[in-house]
Amino acid sequence: MSDEHRGGCLCGAIRFRTKGALRGVLFCHCSQCRRQTGHFYAATDCAVDDVQIEGTEHLTWYRASDMARRGFCATCGSALFWHSDGSERISILAGSFDQPSGLKGSEHIFVADKGDYYEIEDGLPQR
To answer: Which residue of 75, 76, 94, 118 has the lowest C-beta tally within 10 Å?
Structure first.
């Protein structure tokens, strides 16, 4: 996988560039992620210092819990980021990357909270 990736929101008001290796894609099935996206989160991550964001005036942060915030485009509503308080890493939604992304799934989390309308059958680890 390349050491630089680019992506952005649906309307293009926010663009970002990452450098360095990205984590494999985590699929989060918690109720907050499902409600924000309409399905489940699919996100990779990188060091906060390794992401450059353009169009930050369009970036809105929503605190859905007392431990993290979610970043989205205020213009088009695209979910883009998840950042845990005090963490040196930031999650970036996999679907927001330009193609080809080279990303691969790694595991599912919060599977006990998954929606009742789908099954997880890809063979990846589940927690």
So the answer is: 118
